[in-house]
Amino acid sequence: MKLIIFDVDGTLVDSQHLIVAAQGMAFAEHGLTAPSRNESLSVVGLSLPQAFRRLVGDDGPIEGLSESYKRAFNILRLDPNYEEPLFPGMGELLTRLHARDDVQLGIATGKARRGVDRLIETHGWEGWFATTQSADDAPSKPDPAMLLQAMAATGAEPNATVMIGDTTYDMTMAVNAGAAAVGVAWGYHPVGALFSAGASIVVDTADDLGALFSGDPHVRPTIEA
Q1: Based on the number of CB atoms within 10 Å of its own CB, is 127 exposed (0-12), middle (13-18) or buried (19 or more)?
Q2: Per-residue pLDDT tens over the stretch 57-77
Q3: Domains 2-14+85-212 and 16-82 belong to one CATH topology
Q4: Which of 7, 166, 170, 208 is catalytic?
Q5: Is the pTM for the entire model greater than 0.85?
Q6: Residue 218 above 80 pLDDT?
Q7: Cα–Cα distance list, 16 to 74, 172, 205 (Å)
Q8: Which tens digit of pLDDT belongs to each residue from 75-87?
Q9: Active-site residue 7, yes or no?
Q10: What single DSSP character describes residue 75?
Q11: Which sequence spans correspond to the domains of the chain?
């Protein structure tokens, strides 16, 4: 049985507007200049302390920024201007994969457990995922702990495990865990960077991603290294 693990932000849902705005509010609260949009998106996928350490350095107010970000995020997520829509086709793809008896689904994300639970409840995915790994459960990506825990929880072997994500952190985590690394081109890190971090394939659409698991040996990725 194959274990297919999905990242969340930038892979399943488009949360960039919410993330950038929440970071801006957090930096303003501490009297700091907010990072550029590209800088903000470059750290998506990391757990909050690691993300802010990348942005302000070891001597910055990392803990304070993390707490400010959480408050801002929870305020903004109630604003309809900051919805987190699913990327096109991803809901349908999960529905098809969930219906198969030769696939287990999982999540590995830098989101907190509360955010994962909210995502699952919002989309009616209760009971769909055999394992969900969050920032509260393991060290930040690209440490392989999330994937190692997911495989241990489901009994999946590394050669039957696939990590799907949009960042270099996802790809490196997969490589570190001995799993297959599949990148998506619609997220927050450049395609070339995904290949450099270990992606074996990068797909351009949810349909292309689904085709990889169709069992058709003639299916080829839309983007190759």
Answers
A1: exposed
A2: 999 999 999 999 999 999 998
A3: no
A4: 7
A5: yes
A6: no
A7: 15, 22, 18
A8: 998 999 898 999 9
A9: yes
A10: H
A11: 2-14+85-212, 16-82
